[in-house]
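Design request, tokens follow.
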């Protein structure tokens, strides 16, 4: 195992990349690992992300050159949307070839990654306001708008996307409590933590 293991993030978009990079970095630091974290893809939504992941996986399998080396850990983060996180996770697990990627962690925010960011404790700590009550619905852009409105209510600017706050929110998050509120997050944290432990 290299002194600095390489972790590849394969994410649905920029926001997912921000969340995954912060979470992986935090969990790695907690056990004394200093990995090289690289984003392979972070654009395009669920369907495009899965299609492009399979193409990239084929390229890695055939040794397709620079950018196609096998990482020590593959982290996939793609929204469950309205399909249920457990089912989407199983579908993604079936897409990953264990012969190519011996270690992987798969996250499927239910229904969208912004919901993970709206954890009351970290919102209060980072932004100094309380988030709205979780509506528990699956509507397009609902949680994105709730997060955006919460940031604006706190009087904070949004330069690129509401997800630019993800690193600070992840850093402040009580992962145990947040995982109790969001089982899809708990599963993702547990998978990453277990995979990182195996790299020590």
């Amino acid at each position: 195992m290299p002194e600095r293991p390489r972790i590849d993030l394969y994410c649905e978009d920029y926001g997912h990349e921000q969340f995954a990079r912060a979470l992986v970095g935090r969990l790695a630091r907690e056990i004394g690992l200093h990995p090289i974290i690289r984003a392979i893809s972070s654009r395009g939504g669920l369907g495009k992300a899965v299609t492009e992941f399979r193409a990239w996986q084929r390229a890695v399998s055939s040794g397709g050159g620079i950018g196609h080396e096998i990482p020590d850990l593959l982290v996939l983060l793609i929204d469950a949307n309205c399909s249920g996180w457990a089912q989407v996770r199983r579908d993604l697990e079936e897409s990953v070839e264990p012969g190519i990627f011996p270690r992987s962690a798969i996250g499927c925010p239910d229904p969208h990654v912004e919901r993970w960011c709206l954890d009351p404790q970290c919102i209060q700590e980072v932004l100094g306001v309380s988030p709205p009550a979780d509506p528990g619905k699956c509507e397009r852009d609902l949680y994105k708008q709730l997060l955006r409105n919460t940031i604006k209510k706190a009087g904070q600017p949004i330069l690129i996307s509401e997800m630019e706050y993800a690193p600070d929110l992840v850093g402040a998050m009580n992962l145990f409590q947040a995982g109790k509120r969001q089982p899809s997050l708990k599963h993702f944290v547990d998978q990453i933590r277990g995979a990182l432990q195996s790299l020590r």
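Comment from the thread starter after seeing the answer: thanks! The chain has a mean pLDDT of 91.
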